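[User]
If only I could read backbone structure tokens as easily as an amino acid sequence. I have put the entry right below:
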Amino acid sequence: MSQLIRRIPVPEGFAMGIARFAGATMIGLAGWTGGLAAKAVDASLSGYQGSWVLDGRDCADVFSSGGKGSAFKKPVDIFAPAFVISGKRLRTPMASYQIKSARPAKDRQIFLLDCANSVASNEVRVLLATSPNGMLKRYYSDVDPTGVTYRRCS
């Protein structure tokens, strides 16, 4: 068998062409699977899109309606218990977060956020769950049975 392989002439540059093809194929597959992961994150975020305020607070006290949706009212109340999820971004009055991933964990979603504010940046884990009545709960840990309830602002 090895004698047969030695006798077959290989065109010059053939091995390099195969290597380029394999590399391009791997990059293409990585992009395709990355696209699937992004679509999975987008799908898991669909029920969370919008402006949210702590239940019992008035949306008009925290948000102002703008051309593209809700924004925090000026001057911004940095202590307002509210946030906005738009696409793969979560914004609070003090910081902006890139949603890196969202995955189910029992009756909740675990969000991994890449956080940045004027002081530092780090990764944060947040547990959220939507409910049939349109409310949202944020849990402080895996064993938190009650959570804190937020309602969506229109």
